[in-house]
Write a structure and sequence with these properties.
The protein contains nine helices and six strands. The chain is of the alpha/beta class. The chain has a domain of about 180 residues: Undecaprenyl pyrophosphate synthetase (3-Layer(aba) Sandwich), CATH 3.40.1180. Helix 3 packs across helix 4 and helix 4 packs parallel to helix 5. The chain is globular. The structure holds ligand V07.
Length: about 260
């Protein structure tokens, strides 16, 4: 994949390409999850409205998706809208709910070209119809693609997801398919919205906040965490490259033991 990256005429700096190529010698994370924070602050710093920050943040999603694809990452999960985000002003929520359409209208052809598959986790039923339809169309159009999985967490909350999993497991118990003592971690995994995905290897949160905000609480049990002060609209290829290098550095420390003793 790096031959392709290096061979292609690109406006990315030579230095980034060179350093990207160096990553090939070590394992790149299979699944990267990102809490994309700091769009409002980015706009405020420029005396612009919050929605301008969200729009800029969407451009970063495009940039980082392309780069994750070039790096050969298997899954990129992006926290686009949490169940808490409904509490924001109505006009902001309306703008946010238009972003998936804006993004997909301009980017879907490129997603197809790049063999990227769109998926989502979260409660899609409560999304506005136009947002839901755009998502369903993208998921359906890209469903046979075999490259990067671009997984959007939309109207997602981890505790609600776990409650739902518990209810499903209890239904199995009620039907007599399972006894309470037989319930194990595999059953819980199976009923989470991420059951078909590997667990995240690396979690990145931008903008200096150091908390999980109800994001993939179960799935992040063994994940490496990386918190950066960079605001999401300023996050670029260089930032992701450095995040992956930091991940590789941490992994190297466990060399030989393959991390087994660290769990
Ligand atoms: C959103 C831009 C990124 C920063 C975080 C908040 C604002 C892309 C999408 C999206 C979602 C689904 C999809 C295609 C694109 C998006 C929301 C907010 C709600 F299929 N960016 N982005 N969705 N922001």
């Amino acid at each position: 994949m790096f031959k392709k990256l290096l061979g292609k005429k690109s406006n990315k700096s030579e230095a980034i390409l060179q350093r990207s190529a160096e990553l090939v010698d070590e394992k790149v994370p299979s699944h990267i999850a990102i809490i994309m924070d700091g769009n409002g602050r980015w706009a405020k710093k420029r005396a612009m409205p919050r929605i301008a920050g969200h729009h800029e943040g969407m451009k970063t999603v495009r940039k980082i998706t392309r780069y994750a694809c070039d790096l050969g990452i298997d899954v990129l999960t992006l926290y686009a809208f949490s169940t808490e985000n409904w509490k924001r002003p109505k006009s902001e929520v309306e703008f946010l709910m238009g972003l998936p359409e804006q993004f997909l209208n301009s980017f879907l052809p490129e997603l197809m070209e790049r063999n990227i598959r769109v998926q989502m986790i979260g409660e899609e039923q409560n999304l506005p119809k136009h947002t839901r339809n755009a998502l369903i169309k993208a998921i359906d159009t890209t469903k046979n693609n075999t490259g990067l999985i671009l997984n959007f967490a939309m109207n997602y909350g981890s505790r609600a997801e776990m409650v739902m999993a518990m209810q499903e497991i209890m239904r199995e118990v009620e039907k007599g398919h399972l006894t309470i003592d037989e319930i194990n971690e595999t059953h819980v995994d199976r009923y989470l919205m991420t059951s078909h995905l590997p667990e995240p290897d690396l979690l990145i949160r931008t903008s200096g906040e150091v908390r999980l905000s109800n994001f993939m609480l179960w799935q992040l049990a063994y994940t490496e965490f990386l918190f950066t002060d960079t605001l999401w609209p300023d996050f670029d290829e260089q930032c992701l490259l450095e995040a992956v290098q930091e991940y590789q550095k941490r992994n190297r420390r466990y060399g030989g033991l393959e991390g087994e003793d660290e769990k």
